[in-house]
Amino acid sequence: MADDPNMDNEDEFARMLRELLSGNSSIDPSQLAGAAGLPNDPAAIANLINQLQGAMRNSGDGINWDLALEQARTLAGEGALPTEPGVRSGMEQAFHVAALWLDEVANVSELQLVPTLTSRAEWVRTTMPIWTQLAEPVALSISTAITKVFQEQAPEEMRSMVAGAESMIRSVGGALFAMQLGQVVGQLSREVVSGGDIGIPLLNDGTATLLPQNVAEFGDGLDIPLDQVQLYLAVRELAHARLFRHAKWLRLQLIMAITEYARGISIDTGMLENLADRFDPSNPEELREIMASGALIPEKTDAQKAALERLETTLALVEGWVDVVTAQATTRLPKSDAIAETVRRRRASGGPAESAFATLVGLELRPRRLREAAAMWQAVTDAAGGEARDHLWSHPDLLPSSGDLDNPAALVARLTAEAEGKTPELDEVDQALEELLRGDTERPKEE
């Protein structure tokens, strides 16, 4: 039986990669580890070599996301501390009080599941399925782009070898991206304080959680008693989780919006080619920064810009609502305003999610319109009450629009009129339509 030329080409390409990974090339493993965002230590380099060699042995079209999970859990475990019984008891009590306070100000569904306390490693495990769902479209695009650049940049005598090793190149490219994702999520696990801290719902509906170690670090240096910090963050987390349980359509709508946006992304191969031309093996940090910044993702199309505006508006509505409800519910806390200001400053500086979304889907999901959204929700609350405010989350068609953020007066007028049992004023077109439906318009006389 004749030998398979593709198998020979793949074996040759694998040999070249093994030489690279063993240090017998112009790029040694420590430089490649730096490009992947890994620390330059023997354990990290050995792990990188094992993972890439595994990708070479099990090449295919898919991406082994277990690499991301392993990388993230390793990073999350560094410096992790167990939760002391006294801290656990205090935070569980904070959730109980938070639920009572929210009941007084919010008209959204209560949670069926008891809120939990979560370690960094457990947060990684429970949120990774959503991260990989969001990241996969871009990861596949990067693997395709790397393969294309290999094919186009290879010398003529090597092109058949590259073509035969296409699945292996894709697999190695996917492995590098998965490990980069693991770095991002692992770092986030050391910064987030709750399940809803990112803004998007990473946990299942009706799930609320706090990360005790990160909550304590958040409170360090604030000169505020830790129990007040715990209670304030418990209120925020419960408000976020209750909102997504109440508006059952909201989580799916947000996740699908981000995923569909990511599927429309095609990686800029020109950027990859330029990077390959000027890549300095002694400075792998440049490659890591380009991958982490999302610079390989081209300018947004008009359709993507419109989708991004809708997405940002929805995220701002969520965060603005949570801000307003939390402020109402925590009036008994002496330092609630100071904690709220810390949350705002943290969010204004980018928050823990900014680099993650830039890396994964080229999005800056900072809710730029948060201030306007919070002001609108407060105006609605003041004029029409909390029940009318929260009813707007009952259906996506009722949700305020970007125009309502610009000028909430019309929304407030409508809700106020409805609360008073009045019909809001109609413009000329709506008036004519209503008259037509009532049969009040003059009918032409029969001849």
What does this structure look like?
- The longest helix is centred in the first third of the chain and has 34 residues, at 120-153.
- It is built from 21 helices and 2 strands.
- Strands 1-2 form a two-stranded parallel sheet.
- Helix 4 (66-77) runs parallel beside helix 8 and helix 6 (120-153) packs antiparallel against helix 8 (166-188).
- With 447 residues, the protein is mainly alpha-helical.
- The model is unreliable at 20-27 (pLDDT under 50).
- The termini are far apart.
- The chain folds into 2 domains: 82-166 and 187-361, no CATH class; 370-438, no CATH class.
Write the layout of secondary structure elements.
Layout: H1 5-21, H2 29-35, H3 42-57, H4 66-77, H5 85-105, E1 116-117, H6 120-153, H7 159-164, H8 166-188, E2 209-210, H9 212-219, H10 226-246, H11 248-263, H12 269-278, H13 285-293, H14 302-329, H15 336-348, H16 354-361, H17 370-384, H18 386-391, H19 402-406, H20 409-419, H21 428-438
Parallel strand pairs: 1-2
Helix pairs in contact: 2-3, 3-8, 4-6, 4-8, 5-10, 5-14, 6-8, 6-11, 8-16, 9-10, 10-11, 10-14, 11-14, 14-17, 17-20
